[in-house]
Amino acid sequence: MIKRIFTPATIAVHFWGIGLLIINEYYYEYLRFYLYVSILLIIPIALWNLVQKRKKDTVEETQEFKSSIYRMLFMAIVMIVIFFITRQNHI
């Protein structure tokens, strides 16, 4: 059970979160750049993961790639809805 909780991905996410909290507390002016770098780092990792799932799907005839795409589309819709709910008019 513990092996499934402490994977390299979850440890990396926790360190990213701790770094985000530290930068938010002490170096707030660099917070936006930290988030931009985070996005730039996660895009190639996500693409590599999708390519690996696509290869696995062709070899083993599974549906992991399709479910990953659906999961990303669902999260994009959730993020768009949250954006419009929290949007404020700063005129």
Q: C-alpha Rg, in Å?
A: 17 Å
Global shape: extended
Total domain units: 1
Which structural category do the helix and sheet elements fall into? mainly alpha
Question: What does this 3D model show about the protein?
Answer:
The protein has 91 residues and is mainly α. It has one domain (2-86). 84% of the residues lie in helices and 0% in strands. It has helices spanning 2-5, 8-26, 31-60, 64-86. Helix 2 (8-26) packs antiparallel against helix 3 (31-60).
Summarize the model shown.
With 91 residues, the chain is mainly α. The chain has helices at 2-5, 8-26, 31-60, 64-86.
What descriptors fit this protein?
91 residues, mainly alpha, 4 helices, 0% strand, extended
Q: Mind sketching the topology for me?
A:
Layout: H1 2-5, H2 8-26, H3 31-60, H4 64-86
Helix pairs in contact: 2-3
